[in-house]
Predict the 3D structure of the following.
Amino acid sequence: MPFDRLESPGHVVNYLARLLARALLRRIGPHGVNTGQFPVLLMLWERDGATQTELVTQLAVEQPTMAGTLKRMERDGLIRRVPDPADGRQSRIQLTRRGRALEDTLINAARDTNNV
Protein backbone atom coordinates (compact mmCIF):
# COMPACT_ATOMS: atom_id res chain seq x y z
CA MET A 1 0.00 0.00 0.00
CA PRO A 2 1.55 3.35 -1.02
CA PHE A 3 2.01 6.12 1.53
CA ASP A 4 -0.56 8.86 1.06
CA ARG A 5 0.92 12.10 2.36
CA LEU A 6 -2.48 13.79 2.33
CA GLU A 7 -3.73 11.18 4.80
CA SER A 8 -0.69 11.59 7.05
CA PRO A 9 -1.39 13.73 10.14
CA GLY A 10 2.31 14.60 10.36
CA HIS A 11 2.41 15.90 6.80
CA VAL A 12 -0.82 17.85 7.15
CA VAL A 13 0.24 19.47 10.46
CA ASN A 14 3.66 20.36 9.06
CA TYR A 15 2.12 21.84 5.92
CA LEU A 16 -0.38 23.88 7.92
CA ALA A 17 2.38 25.15 10.22
CA ARG A 18 4.39 26.36 7.21
CA LEU A 19 1.34 28.09 5.73
CA LEU A 20 0.61 29.83 9.04
CA ALA A 21 4.25 30.86 9.45
CA ARG A 22 4.26 32.42 5.98
CA ALA A 23 0.98 34.23 6.65
CA LEU A 24 2.32 35.53 9.97
CA LEU A 25 5.56 36.70 8.35
CA ARG A 26 3.60 38.69 5.77
CA ARG A 27 1.99 40.59 8.66
CA ILE A 28 4.95 41.00 11.04
CA GLY A 29 7.78 41.26 8.51
CA PRO A 30 7.03 44.88 7.59
CA HIS A 31 7.68 45.73 11.27
CA GLY A 32 11.18 44.26 11.12
CA VAL A 33 10.35 41.05 12.97
CA ASN A 34 10.57 37.50 11.68
CA THR A 35 8.86 34.29 12.81
CA GLY A 36 11.90 33.18 14.80
CA GLN A 37 11.95 36.40 16.80
CA PHE A 38 8.21 36.50 17.45
CA PRO A 39 8.13 33.76 20.14
CA VAL A 40 10.96 35.53 21.98
CA LEU A 41 8.99 38.76 21.94
CA LEU A 42 5.87 36.95 23.16
CA MET A 43 7.76 35.56 26.13
CA LEU A 44 9.43 38.87 26.95
CA TRP A 45 6.08 40.68 26.78
CA GLU A 46 4.89 38.22 29.42
CA ARG A 47 8.06 38.31 31.48
CA ASP A 48 10.64 40.92 30.56
CA GLY A 49 14.12 40.23 31.90
CA ALA A 50 14.32 36.49 31.27
CA THR A 51 17.76 34.95 30.87
CA GLN A 52 18.90 33.39 27.62
CA THR A 53 18.79 29.98 29.33
CA GLU A 54 15.17 30.55 30.36
CA LEU A 55 14.27 31.52 26.80
CA VAL A 56 15.97 28.40 25.42
CA THR A 57 14.12 26.17 27.88
CA GLN A 58 10.70 27.77 27.60
CA LEU A 59 10.75 28.08 23.80
CA ALA A 60 12.41 24.69 23.16
CA VAL A 61 15.07 26.19 20.90
CA GLU A 62 18.71 25.13 20.67
CA GLN A 63 21.20 27.37 22.45
CA PRO A 64 23.13 28.40 19.28
CA THR A 65 19.86 29.27 17.51
CA MET A 66 18.76 31.44 20.43
CA ALA A 67 22.15 33.14 20.60
CA GLY A 68 21.89 34.12 16.93
CA THR A 69 18.29 35.24 17.26
CA LEU A 70 19.08 37.44 20.26
CA LYS A 71 22.12 38.91 18.51
CA ARG A 72 19.95 39.97 15.56
CA MET A 73 17.22 41.28 17.85
CA GLU A 74 19.78 43.34 19.73
CA ARG A 75 21.21 44.65 16.46
CA ASP A 76 17.70 45.59 15.33
CA GLY A 77 16.95 47.46 18.54
CA LEU A 78 14.29 45.07 19.87
CA ILE A 79 16.13 43.92 23.00
CA ARG A 80 19.12 44.76 25.15
CA ARG A 81 21.23 42.60 27.43
CA VAL A 82 21.56 43.80 31.01
CA PRO A 83 23.96 42.18 33.49
CA ASP A 84 22.14 40.12 36.11
CA PRO A 85 22.74 41.87 39.46
CA ALA A 86 22.63 38.54 41.30
CA ASP A 87 24.92 36.64 38.92
CA GLY A 88 27.44 38.62 36.88
CA ARG A 89 27.98 35.65 34.56
CA GLN A 90 24.44 35.98 33.20
CA SER A 91 22.56 38.66 31.36
CA ARG A 92 18.91 39.48 31.50
CA ILE A 93 17.19 40.04 28.17
CA GLN A 94 15.06 43.17 28.27
CA LEU A 95 12.81 44.75 25.72
CA THR A 96 13.79 48.12 24.34
CA ARG A 97 11.23 50.85 23.90
CA ARG A 98 10.87 49.73 20.28
CA GLY A 99 10.39 46.08 21.26
CA ARG A 100 7.74 46.98 23.80
CA ALA A 101 5.96 49.36 21.40
CA LEU A 102 5.41 46.57 18.86
CA GLU A 103 3.36 44.42 21.24
CA ASP A 104 -0.17 45.47 20.26
CA THR A 105 0.63 45.60 16.54
CA LEU A 106 2.24 42.17 16.42
CA ILE A 107 -0.32 40.52 18.69
CA ASN A 108 -3.07 41.83 16.42
CA ALA A 109 -1.15 40.51 13.40
CA ALA A 110 -1.00 37.07 15.02
CA ARG A 111 -4.71 37.20 15.84
CA ASP A 112 -5.50 38.16 12.24
CA THR A 113 -3.35 35.25 11.02
CA ASN A 114 -5.12 32.81 13.32
CA ASN A 115 -8.53 34.03 12.17
CA VAL A 116 -7.90 33.32 8.50
Remarks:
- The mean pLDDT is 95.
- The two ends are 35 Å apart (CA to CA).
- The first helix runs from residue 9 to 28.
- The first strand starts at residue 50 and ends at 51.
